[in-house]
Amino acid sequence: MVDVKIKEKLQNFIGGNWSDGKKYRDVVNPATKEVITQVPLSTQAEVDQAVEVAKRAQKEWALEPAPQRAEILYEVGRLMKEKKDHLARLLTLENGKVLEEARGEVQEGIDMAFYMAGEGRRLFGQTTNAELKNKFAMSVRAPVGVVGIITPWNFPIAIATWKSFPAIIAGNAGVWKPATETPLMAHEMAHIFTEAGLPDGVMNVVFGAGAEVGDAMIQHPNIQVISFTGSTETGKHVASECGKQLKKVSLELGGKNAVIVMDDADIDLSVEGILWSAFGTSGQRCTACSRVIVHEAVKEALEEKLVTAMQDLTIGNGLDDGIKVGPIINEAGMEKITKYIDIGKEEGAKLVKGGHVLSEGSFETGYYFAPTLFTDVNGDMRIAQEEIFGPVVSLIPVASFEEAIEVNNSVTYGLSSSIFTKDVNRVFQAQRDLDTGIVYVNAGTTGAEIHLPFGGTKGTGNGHRDSGVQALDVFTEWKAVYVDYSGKLQRAQIDTEN
Ligand code: UN1
């Protein structure tokens, strides 16, 4: 049972005020299909309003010294820590992920708050030499202005903090559109922002559909940057619309991540890594392991141990004790996964475990899908190329290390990869040759830490990174400053010979 009180209808948070929506949509707990609250479906009007207040608030906020801005972020972090349990329970309720993982995700947000608050006393630029006498040169970070933040349902709090905290510390104001499936985290964060003393209007939450609110943000002339995490399809739309306006855009899209298991790998450890990264959050992570590229010498041993270990994956409501795999987000998610099971079978892959919806008994009331394993998969098959976003893993046998790297890199995505091996030479060759933004050695494909850049190559994004100090590049402009203290006109590149 859930012991948290949730408002029947959520409200937008604009300029520090809470306002009702005109239309609403149900928010459903995927573990039970119960309606837990209703989320406003806002329109262009609310976006305009939010941008207007953000624009005004940003001017003041940018003038506040960064260490003072940081004090507020420290307080945000402290409050999140204080409310960690409460936030985690709400997160499980709206997203379905098991409570332990929800706690981990909230912790990721707390870490980000303290890390970015620390940036308040850094935000380093460079000082360098000028080419002329009595001249000073430096680069500084300047806020971009009003930022648009669009976040997905699979990590409704962590990803939001990767984007909003660097934006805030750098002196921007923002409009945040969370996924309509998971609005509770944004609602809670808005309360935390107020409680921490963030000035009204610095961060605004406008709930609603991507096609309405998201598009209004993308098109708004007073939003200077869009930071988006979501599907590749939507990401392309966001990028092309921003491109038409020369608007800066940071994208974090899909993944088709692989664990490579070499012939010298610790098989038990590999199985643990695969299980955690393939079935955690029910495989609904951008970083989820959906391919296992296994050396043929250990294929049988790995498969056997993997199948056995999968028997112990207890599936159910993430709020219950002992549950390892929670539900799928909604009906559409279930349909997509089911479609890929059919595709895999048609392509000739061997379905050795799962592959079906769970609907009997206690599963009847939620969206549950059996953890699935395909073997005899060829790297070119659609199930080995396309993102499924569910608890489905494909075993792809290879004959060598070189082939493993080639198969890993054969997809259009490049987010995360992993290799299990004891050979130090292979470790370093792999970290050089794996074409992904994140590489793990002797661990699964998930578990990114917030002080490192998060993002990927190829179709995973457009070269920007979330989290890490690199996130500041999305939310700042570099300004080069030259101070000539010679008292005379000195022409660059020309008067250098004097
Ligand atoms: C995502 O899947 O979109 O490394 C984010 C991880 C988490 C974040 C995942 N820390 O899997």
Task: Describe, in plain words, how this protein is organized in 3D.
There is one protein chain. The protein is built from 15 helices and 23 strands. It is an alpha/beta fold and 498 residues long. The strands form 7 sheets. It has a 7-stranded mixed β-sheet with strand order 14-17-18-13-12-20-21, with helices on both faces. Helix 12 (382-385) links the parallel strand 17 (372-375) and strand 18. Helix 2 packs antiparallel against helix 4 (99-119), helix 2 (66-82) packs across helix 6 (184-196) and helix 4 (99-119) runs parallel beside helix 5 (158-169). The radius of gyration is 24 Å and the shape is globular.
Summarize the structure.
By secondary structure, the chain is α/β, with parallel strands linked by helices.
Total beta strands:
23
How far the N terminus sits from the C terminus, by CA atoms, comes to: 80 Å
Placed side by side, the strands forming the largest sheet appear as 14-17-18-13-12-20-21
Proportion of residues in extended strands: 15-25%
Bound molecule kinds, no repeats: 2-aminohexanedioic acid
Helix segment count? 15
Low-confidence stretches: none
Molecular shape: globular
Average pLDDT, rounded to a whole number, is 97
Helix content: 25-40%
Summarize the topology.
Elements: E1 12-14, E2 17-19, E3 24-28, E4 35-40, H1 44-63, H2 66-82, H3 84-95, H4 99-119, E5 126-129, E6 135-143, E7 146-150, H5 158-169, E8 173-177, H6 184-196, E9 203-205, H7 210-219, E10 225-229, H8 232-244, E11 248-252, E12 257-261, H9 267-279, E13 289-295, H10 299-311, H11 331-347, E14 350-353, E15 357-358, E16 368-369, E17 372-375, H12 382-385, E18 392-398, H13 401-408, E19 413-414, E20 416-420, H14 424-433, E21 438-441, E22 457-458, H15 471-475, E23 476-484
Parallel strand pairs: 7-8, 7-10, 8-9, 10-11, 12-13, 12-20, 13-18, 17-18, 20-21
Antiparallel strand pairs: 1-2, 3-4, 5-6, 6-23, 14-17, 15-16, 19-22
Helix pairs in contact: 1-7, 2-4, 2-6, 3-4, 4-5, 9-10
The structure holds 2-aminohexanedioic acid (UN1).
